[in-house]
Amino acid sequence: MSQQYNRYERARIIGARALQVAYGAPVLVDTEQTQPILIAAEEYDADVLPFTVNREGS
Fold it and tell me: What is the pLDDT of residue 33?
């Protein structure tokens, strides 16, 4: 990802994506994982998530 995220932002992004996957959103990477949180973490590591973070004061 072009932006560096702190651990709280990373947790929020992965959690939000895991919820989307759990509700049937298409998976963006080829994976053997079945748990939404692990799928979301793989997607985050692969840099394929279309999330942005708006920071106050930045």
Answer: 96
